[in-house]
Amino acid sequence: MVEDDYYQLLGVSRDVDASALKSAYRKQAMKFHPDRNPGDAVAEGKFKACAEAYEILKDPQKRAAYDRHGKAAFENGGGGRSGFNSAGGGDFSDIFDNIFSEFMGGGPRGRGRQQRSQAIRGGDLRFDMELSLEEAFTGTTKNIDIDVAATCDSCSGSGAAPDAVVETCGTCQGMGQVRVQQGMFVIERACPQCHGAGRVTSKVCDDCLGAGRLDKEKSLEVKIPAGVDDGTRIRLSGEGEAGARGGPAGDLYIFIHLIPHEVFRRQGTNLHVSVPVCFTDAALGGTIDVPSIDGERDELAIPAGTQSGREMRRRGRGMPGINGGGRGDLVVEIEVETPTRMSKRQKELLQEFRELEGETRSSPKSANFFSKIREQWDELTS
């Protein structure tokens, strides 16, 4: 759908000059470009309408005709859309080239096209590495083997045989791309003759068959710093796939996966460990040996009356920070263990303790809980 007034569509006044008109068109074209509004039919319609409006208003003769007669000046063969597809096509495609280069982060039109045709960056690779918690604590060095597209040694990545004659492609004049006009759009595609290389060779390399790259197995030594966590990503610059046509190599990303530990659970730089404590030590107090990730044993004092689920910290006994800053804590979670085997004498002592417990209220938490329950029952029954 085309708006009735071209000036309003581009957001300019009727006395706008050529520079401001071009700037306004670029702004609107980028706003409604299909790449920025995928699947939005309304935005696509406005994008086309803006292109049509700019094509008319940038031409002094067409603009004068539009100012006098409006769109009627270009109906019934008046030269509006026919001029859009012919004489004005080259200038219009220049604007599109600049817009596309801005979307892609490129520079000026000619330089951007030439760079795209000559060099292509290699693809990035991913490698998933499993580590034990101990390896993550100390840091380690791992040797890995990866399959990668590497530069062909025979042709040094050119794809041409040593005795081949390499010439500039006559179809695209070395640009690697050709322009194809479809309706009111000018589209750039890879040259069908040189496949984007910008040059043709009389004989391709026998080893890589003209690709300039070969699949090879590469061995790498990877240094893993102390303190890495599950999901840590390590980037090895230039260790990915080789670039095409002399382009730079991609990167290799190492993703760390920690193997679950039998004793410790990691949360950030802190380590958690559940330690069973016999109920007599929990009641009377005592000391226990606590394991540590560095292999040492720590003695931990258990206060009298310790409850199950209580957490006690050992400062600086956890994991190191990957960027320094010291170690986290070791969080000891107490699990009070009830005995399952008792002698007759032990049972007699516990029975005596239970008889005395009601008088001393040695378990206030349970006493308060059941007291509240009894109060609720009394309210319901009354």
From TrEMBL:
Comment field on protein domains: The J domain is necessary and sufficient to stimulate DnaK ATPase activity. Zinc center 1 plays an important role in the autonomous, DnaK-independent chaperone activity of DnaJ. Zinc center 2 is essential for interaction with DnaK and for DnaJ activity.
Cofactor note: Binds 2 Zn(2+) ions per monomer.
Coiled coil: none
HAMAP family xrefs: DnaJ
An MF annotation (GO) of this entry: oxidoreductase activity
Cofactor(s) needed by this chain: Zn(2+)
Localisation: Cytoplasm
Organism of provenance: Pacificimonas pallii
Domain CR-type: residue ranges: 139-217
UniProt zinc finger (CR-type) residues: 139-217
Alphabetical keyword list: Chaperone, Cytoplasm, DNA replication, Metal-binding, Oxidoreductase, Repeat, Stress response, Zinc, Zinc-finger
Similarity-based family: Belongs to the DnaJ family.
Ranges occupied by CXXCXGXG motif repeats: 152-159, 169-176, 191-198, 205-212
Superkingdom per UniProt: Bacteria
Record function comment: Participates actively in the response to hyperosmotic and heat shock by preventing the aggregation of stress-denatured proteins and by disaggregating proteins, also in an autonomous, DnaK-independent fashion. Unfolded proteins bind initially to DnaJ; upon interaction with the DnaJ-bound protein, DnaK hydrolyzes its bound ATP, resulting in the formation of a stable complex. GrpE releases ADP from DnaK; ATP binding to DnaK triggers the release of the substrate protein, thus completing the reaction cycle.
Binding-site positions, Zn(2+) 1: 152, 155, 205, 208
Protein's UniProt name: Chaperone protein DnaJ
Keyword Chaperone in record: yes
